[in-house]
């Protein structure tokens, strides 16, 4: 029988952390050895003998947490947002010096969201216009969502590769923010509304037609199969994997 994964959850008292603690405790082949909240020392992770960390904290804390785990030979599954290009580059350097460690940075753990983003990225090259609307609960601290940023980056890359031009837009006068944020040339609009959890629409338009990819997470349970898949896979994938699609065979 394979060794049990010894899992430490960081951000354990948050929305995602609470669900992750429950999921790990119920999962076969895993043992929850530490559950850290804000103010807890990272030493608790090593003292508990963790082999795996799940980071579900805040953008300001996640880089320190992940570097600590990598330096200590602990595999990481990261759902926290804020992993921009500079952070990813520093993490690659850290991993180069610890080359048996695996890290998964997953902007979204929900399978439907991963699929919707992959489909949207594939389709975006064929349409004149491409925009994203992401909709979340009002306690979310960052905007746009990490998922929207990643989706826009993937769409922009396929459009650039195919030679698709910029989305047409004749706007000359606007209130600040009226056209959303510009992520690699894709406009991203953020809605914060009580009652919502995590939702995204990718809108693709060409003369006479529109294609929409919409995904809805109605509760935090939607993210847990992806967290567990990440935990079960990450040790066999040394280095950095960006996006849960890296662990799936989407054939796109
Ligand atoms: N990848 C995915 O599928 C998902 C990612 N997220 C992301 O995960 C992160 C957490 O989201 P939520 O759980 O909704 O936030 P939350 O605010 O409910 O939870 C964050 C928790 O982290 C704690 N914390 C802050 N600094 C810490 C530190 N240094 N060590 C340990 N704990 C610390 C906070 O006290 C809080 O309890 C966000 O960046 C969010 O965007 C959220 C949902 C799904
Ligand atoms: O904060 C959230 O809730 C979510 N955060 C992630 C993001 O920013 O994309 C994933 C999901 O959208 C929920």
Automatic annotation (TrEMBL):
Q: Catalytic residues per the record?
A: 136 (proton donor/acceptor), 140 (proton donor)
All residue ranges annotated as the Dihydrodipicolinate reductase N-terminal domain in the record: 6-109
Positions of NAD(+) binding:
11-16, 79-81, 106-109
> Tell me, what is an example of a GO biological process annotation in this record?
lysine biosynthetic process via diaminopimelate
Tell me which UniProt keywords the record has, alphabetically: Amino-acid biosynthesis, Cytoplasm, Diaminopimelate biosynthesis, Lysine biosynthesis, NAD, NADP, Oxidoreductase
Sorted alphabetically, which PANTHER family does this protein's record hold? 4-HYDROXY-TETRAHYDRODIPICOLINATE REDUCTASE 1, CHLOROPLASTIC-RELATED, DIHYDRODIPICOLINATE REDUCTASE
Cellular component aspect of the GO annotation: cytosol
UniProt GO molecular function: 4-hydroxy-tetrahydrodipicolinate reductase; NAD binding; NADP binding; oxidoreductase activity, acting on CH or CH2 groups, NAD or NADP as acceptor
Q: Which family does it belong to?
A: Belongs to the DapB family.
Q: How does this chain assemble?
A: Homotetramer.
Protein name (database record) = 4-hydroxy-tetrahydrodipicolinate reductase
Where is each Dihydrodipicolinate reductase C-terminal domain found? 113-239
Tell me the NCBIfam families matching this sequence.
dapB
| Root EC class | oxidoreductase
Q: Which reaction does it catalyse?
A: (S)-2,3,4,5-tetrahydrodipicolinate + NADP(+) + H2O = (2S,4S)-4-hydroxy-2,3,4,5-tetrahydrodipicolinate + NADPH + H(+); (S)-2,3,4,5-tetrahydrodipicolinate + NAD(+) + H2O = (2S,4S)-4-hydroxy-2,3,4,5-tetrahydrodipicolinate + NADH + H(+)
EC annotation from Swiss-Prot or TrEMBL: 1.17.1.8
SUPFAM superfamilies according to UniProt:
Glyceraldehyde-3-phosphate dehydrogenase-like, C-terminal domain, NAD(P)-binding Rossmann-fold domains
PROSITE patterns on file: DAPB
UniProt lists the gene as dapB
Biological source species: Nesterenkonia sedimenti
Q: Write out the pathway annotation from the protein's UniProt entry.
A: Amino-acid biosynthesis; L-lysine biosynthesis via DAP pathway; (S)-tetrahydrodipicolinate from L-aspartate: step 4/4
Q: Could you tell me which HAMAP family the record lists for this protein?
A: DapB (MF_00102)
**What is its biological role?**
Catalyzes the conversion of 4-hydroxy-tetrahydrodipicolinate (HTPA) to tetrahydrodipicolinate.
- Compartments, record wording: Cytoplasm
User: Where on this chain does (S)-2,3,4,5-tetrahydrodipicolinate bind?
Assistant: 137, 146-147
Taxonomic superkingdom: Bacteria
